[in-house]
Amino acid sequence: MLLLDRLLDVQSTCSEAAIQITSDSTFYIPHKGVPAWIGIEYMGQTAAAIAGYQLEAGTLAPHVGLLLGTRKYRAAIEWFAPGTDLRVRCNERGVMPGGIATFQCEIALIEASQSESVVATANLTVYRTTMKPESG
Q1: Which of 10, 41, 109, 131 has a Cα-to-Cα distance from 22 of 20 to 30 A?
Q2: Which residues contact residue 43 at a Cβ distance below 8 angstroms, ignoring those fewer than 6 apart?
Q3: What are the pLDDT digits (tens) for 52-62?
């Protein structure tokens, strides 16, 4: 399930994605929008783009990434309203032995004037488990 509309930028330790909330958005609820807690998944998918970049660059082995936890998810709003444009930014903060990676993430609303206001923040912890070849 891909929730991001566009990947705007991806580098070795940071990424940025765009999402426009419409009535066709996954998890959309009529007359309300998308619940703000879905922002955790927006952040997770944006963070996963960093791993994709690292994989293509040859600095990371193929793996499955599992979201272990979210610390301090704070949302200033309850809903991402219809017609809202969002920017999700993630920065890899560290990779620990055993495949644990941490990310600092934020979601900003993009106003018509192109000004931004951050409406959600969180720290994600991801477990990267190496894929093993199938025997057979």
Answers
A1: 10
A2: 88, 90, 103, 105, 107, 120, 122, 124
A3: 999 899 888 88
